[in-house]
């Protein structure tokens, strides 16, 4: 079954604990935490102290998406704060393999994210080292954007690449995910759907998660 990772970027930050517990009770599989530095993307969000604080309120695995320059400087602080998966952007470092190895040295799962304009070939040589590949289906920085349809073709091609090397790595999709495109994303090969507005922007988040899962 497809896994659902609500993005707390779209949560009400004044009620963060309740917003996290709400999606945990509603059947979320992971909690997606968008870390933005105001450099790699034009927005600012959470640092390790916030991740450490919310680690105490939920059992959900933390899927930490680092939209930051120099990700190598932040692997350790986020690992120590309680991340279960750390995903870095291929565009953010010239030393992708080294940073992936450093995530694994913390005994947590390593992911690489690709912006819409970044081709799959940038991860081809290290695909066997990855636990997760995050296909961005919007340009990162903000929730509530429109899904970029070319992501579907990219997911299909990535799925083929993973099958060719017998890799168990998961494909995650982030940006503009809704109950309307969830089935197409699953058919293309997605294993995890990240959703912000489609979950936190509706009254009944339990129904929203159920409808994303039932595809
Ligand atoms: O990484 C992100 C933005 O950079 C968010 O996780 C993503 O955009 C989710 O929001 P929505 O589901 O509203 O598109």
From TrEMBL:
Protein task: Catalyzes the reversible epimerization of D-ribulose 5-phosphate to D-xylulose 5-phosphate.
Cross-referenced PANTHER family: RIBULOSE-5-PHOSPHATE-3-EPIMERASE (PTHR11749)
Could you name the active-site residues? 34 (proton acceptor), 174 (proton donor)
Where does this protein hold a divalent metal cation? 32, 34, 65, 174
Specify the protein name: Ribulose-phosphate 3-epimerase
Name the cofactor(s).
a divalent metal cation; Mn(2+); Fe(2+); Zn(2+)
Q: Which GO terms describe its biological process?
A: pentose catabolic process; pentose-phosphate shunt
Lineage of the native species?
Bacteria, Bacillati, Bacillota, Negativicutes, Acetonemataceae
Matching InterPro entries:
Aldolase_TIM (IPR013785), Ribul_P_3_epim (IPR026019), Ribul_P_3_epim-like (IPR000056), RibuloseP-bd_barrel (IPR011060)
Residue positions annotated to bind substrate are 7, 65, 141-144, 174-176, 196-197
Q: Which UniProt keywords apply?
A: Carbohydrate metabolism, Cobalt, Isomerase, Manganese, Metal-binding, Zinc
Q: Does the keyword Manganese apply?
A: yes
- Note how many cofactor molecules are bound and how: Binds 1 divalent metal cation per subunit.
Q: Which domain of life is it from?
A: Bacteria
């Amino acid at each position: 079954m497809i896994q659902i990772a609500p993005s707390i970027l779209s949560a009400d930050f004044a009620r963060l604990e309740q917003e996290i517990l709400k999606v945990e009770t509603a059947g979320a599989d992971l909690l997606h935490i968008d870390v933005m530095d105001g450099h790699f993307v034009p927005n600012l969000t959470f640092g390790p102290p916030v991740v450490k604080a919310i680690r105490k309120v939920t059992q959900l695995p933390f899927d930490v998406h680092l939209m930051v320059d120099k990700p190598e400087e932040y692997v350790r602080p986020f690992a120590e704060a309680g991340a279960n998966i750390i995903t870095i952007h291929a565009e953010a470092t010239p030393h992708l393999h080294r940073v992936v190895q450093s995530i694994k040295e913390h005994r947590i799962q390593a992911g690489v994210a690709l912006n819409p304009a970044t081709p799959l070939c940038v991860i081809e040589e290290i695909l066997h080292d990855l636990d997760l590949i995050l296909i961005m289906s919007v340009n990162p920085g903000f929730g509530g954007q429109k899904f970029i349809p070319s992501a579907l073709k990219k997911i299909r091609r990535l799925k083929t690449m993973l099958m060719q090397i017998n890799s168990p790595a998961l494909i995650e999709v982030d940006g503009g995910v809704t109950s309307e495109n969830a089935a197409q994303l699953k058919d293309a090969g997605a294993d995890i759907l990240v959703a912000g507005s489609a979950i936190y922007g509706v009254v009944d988040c339990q129904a929203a998660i159920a409808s994303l899962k039932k595809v």
